[in-house]
Amino acid sequence: MANHEIIALRAFADNYVWTLRDARRAAVVDPGDARPVIDYLEREKLELVAILNTHHHADHVGGNAGLLARWKVPVFGPDDERIREVTHRLKEGDRFTLPHFGIEFGVMDIPAHTRSHIAFHGGGMVFSGDTLFAVGCGRLFEGTPKQMHDSLSRLMQLPGETLVYCGHEYTVANIRFARAVEPDNAALRDLEIHAKKQRDQDLPTLPSTVSQEKATNPFVRVREPAVIAAANRYAGKTLNDPVSVLAAIREWKNSF
Ligand SMILES: [Zn+2]
């Protein structure tokens, strides 16, 4: 493994701009704001080599132009004209090598939060944007429960130890909801203790892992009897398939 590390730069209230860096260079994922990135790169004397975008929302791409004004770098993102700055428009199955770092990333189409949302996976990591969160999933702005179920299922096929870097620090609130769905889930109880300790010290709760999500995330656990039973109680009827279960708990969470 190359000699790099990943830094969580903060933007706005709860966004993370995931920043891969070594001693001299950096690449950023979803820079919603250029300012914290420029401040960090200047302070650390790093040169930007690439930008990655998972989806078109302003809190993920709003800093592209400001960074490109200083560093002429490639921008890897979805094939969606709503992100003007993308130089490499990517789709399911595409692969590319991150400049300088040499990490090969594969691209997955993971629509639901937005219709053109993609994930980047490689080097033991996945950048899941606003589709998969720790213990949660994104809102369905441009997609269906079926699409979210399919997108999450595909992410869960990555190796269990894959580190999950998502777009927001929502973990503690997500756990509160997940515990309403599954009060007897011991993994959730343990994670709540850990996540609160991290936040009390103003530290990120992320990255998660694919294994952790399988153990704690109600939107992934839609085949678990306890999750199905809770969804049935919320819906007031018997739900017969995982997509209907996901739809019910997504609706429940929207008003939680
Ligand atoms: Zn978003």
| Alpha-carbon distance between the two ends | 42 Å
Backbone CA Rg:
18 Å
Strand segment tally: 14
Main beta-sheet strand count, sense and barrel state:
6 strands, mixed
**Average residue-wise pLDDT:** 97
In brief:
The chain has 9 helices and 14 strands.
Task: Explain how this protein is built.
This protein has 256 residues and is an alpha/beta fold. The protein is 34% helix and 24% strand. The chain has nine helices and 14 strands. The strands form three sheets. A six-stranded mixed sheet has the order 1-2-3-4-5-6, with helices on one face. The longest helix has 15 residues, at 186-200. The N and C termini lie far apart (42 Å). The model has no long low-confidence stretch (mean pLDDT 97). The protein binds zinc ion.
Map the helices and strands:
Layout lengths: L4 E7 L3 E7 L3 E5 L4 H11 L2 E6 L5 H4 L2 H5 L6 E4 L9 E3 L4 E3 L6 E6 L8 E5 L2 E5 L2 E2 L2 E2 L7 H11 L7 E4 L4 H11 L4 H15 L7 E2 H7 L8 H11 L6 H13 L2
Parallel strand pairs: 3-4, 4-5, 5-6, 10-13
Antiparallel strand pairs: 1-2, 2-3, 7-8, 8-9, 9-10, 11-12, 13-14
Helix pairs in contact: 4-9, 5-6, 8-9
